[in-house]
Amino acid sequence: MKTLFFIGFMGVGKTSVSAALGRILELPVIEMDEQIARNEGMTIPEIFAQKGESHFRACETALLEGLAAENACLVSCGGGVAMRQENVAAMRRCGTVVLLTARPEVILERVRDSDERPLLQGRKNVTDIAALMAQRRSAYEAAADVTVDTSDLTIEEVCRAVLCCGRSTENNTQYKIGFKEEATMSQKYPITISSWTLGDQCTFEERVSAAKEAGFEGIGLRAETYVDALNEGLFDADILAILDKYGMKVTEVEYIVQWAEEHRSYEQKYKEQMCFHMCELFGVNHINCGLMENYSVEHTAQKLRELCHRAGKYTIGVEPMPYSGLPDIKKAWAVVKASGCDNAKLILDSWHWVRAGQSYDPALLADIPAEKVVAVQINDVQAHPYAKSILRDESMHDRMLPGTGHGDTAGFVKMLRDKGIQPAVMGVEVISDEILAAGVAAAAKANFDATRAVLAQAWPEVLEK
Predict the structure, then answer these.
(1) How many angstroms separate the CA atoms of 153 and 102, rounded?
(2) pLDDT tens readout for residues 66-107
(3) How many whole angstroms separate alpha carbon 82 and alpha carbon 172?
(4) pTM of the model
(5) Measured between alpha carbons, how far is 45 from 51 in angstroms, rounded to an integer?
(6) Cα(104)–Cα(120) distance, rounded to whole angstroms?
(7) How far apart are CA 343 and CA 278, in angstroms?
(8) Which H helix or E strand runs over 426?
């Protein structure tokens, strides 16, 4: 990925946004003012007072020129960096210039209590800020490859905006929220190869190409897989272009976890926001969610209610897994039902179903409305399960192709069909080191062929165009 240089007037959010993106992309962040202050051994106001603004500007240029030899990073530039043409040239040689802007009254609120803004001494009012911004506007806009107005956006939304904009530097890209329309599929239940099925060692285009060539119509993406694509140097526009190139869609987004914790980590909160962004970007309406921690039905239902509220228009698909805090369909449904949320639903996976010791007796689904199952994932199991303490290891390494093991995948599929379930996607999640060792193209083809055989036997309508 190219280095991103964040320019703009003071108070537009350069420091906060670069720090947040640094956590997402796992890239180093350079705060230019802080770096110069360390190099000079004094604060920015002291540099201005003792050595003058011209010395400070020379320090900025020297620092930028030194970055040309560094690996990709995120650089929060001082407000005056883009005013010098040599600085702009240095930034464009090794990266993309992102202009953050905001309305003068918003900037005033953000900097009102700061004493670290030498150029605003005696000028902390809307009129003077607007005048200073006007002096710099043409230089900022000429330097920028991408422009984002942060006035009415959260830090998370600004990060999404930056990631949404393509990396072309031919024209300044202006960010608009919600530019991707909902995906249109030719099949009612698009057969989708889940993210884990193709592992995490291939490029994004290799993933899409392998899925398309095998016969799949959709691919699943985890938040981690999406970030891997960004770390390849792709922006959202590039990702969409690759999907369009192969006539493919992302039809499954995952995986929100630890949502029942009282004190969730920043990383998990941001992963959740990333999933929401992916849904908006790809036109996906549901998110796969799991819960390893074991809590009471009442507590878990309350936390699910909170998650569904945050999700808004998106459906939260809860996946029961035998080694998790929602080990079977009974508890998972109890939690979904108790949440009282229309957008709380279930995801049913045949591997988890079998390893939970559940039969295909329709009575197990009798109390669950068919519309409360949002998605299905199929696969198969080996003859003998791993020990209970390491059952998750089997799930993450040794699943089998649908219809090739000892779980009667066709019986599972027929049970769902007879229930009247209409999944948003028919996912294929075969996490297998052995199958993947043959390469992503061979793995995708083996998964599709096995899936097609099972569906032709137990649910042929899924294969209809």
Answers:
(1) 10
(2) 887 778 899 999 888 999 999 999 998 888 999 999 999 998
(3) 15
(4) 0.69
(5) 10
(6) 13
(7) 17
(8) strand 426-428
